[in-house]
Amino acid sequence: MVAAEKFWNGIAEKYSGLVIPDPEAYEATLARVRPWLNTTDSVLELGCGTGTTALKLAGCVGRITASDIAGEMVRIGADKARDAGVETIEFARGGIADMAARGEQYDVVTAFNLLHLLDDLPGALADIHAMVRPGGLFISKTFCRPGPGQSSLQYRAMRILVPAMQLVGKAPFVAFMPIPELEAAIRAAGFEVLETGNYPERPPRRLIVARKPG
Questions:
Q1: Which ranges of the chain have pLDDT less than 50?
Q2: Signed CA dihedral, 165, 147, 119, 89: sign only
């Protein structure tokens, strides 16, 4: 299996040029997320990739710190923000533990398409909990194992291809979590789940809006 940072740095340029595979589900996700945001919010996006979602949400919040473990992803994202004239996004290279080590707290922490790529989910969620201000939100969207009626040809292909690619160093760690397991982990980390949904439904990418009590 390839190290995560090396993998994402290696595909950053190609990733930047990819078309969003399911734009309808992506826009539906943004439509559900925006009502939870305020123009005064400070936001931390974990696993920001090349900054597409940060740029989409920048007008809804006060400031976004967009972070990613891959320096090449961060570089491309910063270039995109500069070209778009967006000055309210700060790009930072670092994983979840790196960002937690800063000791800062945010009104909202987001993790889109990230949690299933973590090999220590409880540890990551503990760090995320520490970075959310009391009363603040943790918003995530995560690829999950399909339940009854949610499977697809895409998912079945992934279950075959991903392990094979990992053996030759061409794919990172991927967890195939069922939705109840993911939600239980978020609750166990100290969050209250406020809203859920699947965007898309098959295979499910679970949107979870959770609050840190305070």
A1: 1
A2: positive
> CA–CA separation, 201 vs 39, rounded Å?
30
Q: What is the pLDDT of residues 55-112, one digit of tens each?
A: 999 999 999 999 999 999 999 999 999 999 999 999 999 999 999 999 999 999 999 9
pTM, full prediction = 0.91
What distance in Å separates the CA atoms of residue 106 and residue 96, rounded to the nearest whole number?
Answer: 14
Of residues 163, 173, 150, the one with CA closest to residue 69: 173
Distance from C-alpha of 155 to C-alpha of 66, rounded to nearest angstrom:
29
Of 65, 162, 47, residue with least CA distance to 105:
65
- Domain CATH code at residue 16: 3.40.50.150
Phi/psi at 183 (5° precision): -65, -35
Amino acid at 70: A
**pLDDT at residue 90 in the model:** 98
Number of domains in the chain: 1
What residues does 66 pair with on adjacent strands? Answer: 45, 91
Is the separation of the CB atoms in 108 and 36 below 8 Å? yes
Residue-range definition of the domain harbouring residue 205: 4-211
Tokens of 123: 């540890």
Residue type, 77: G
d(CA 60, CA 40): 9
Give the pLDDT confidence score for residue 1 in this predicted structure.
Answer: 43
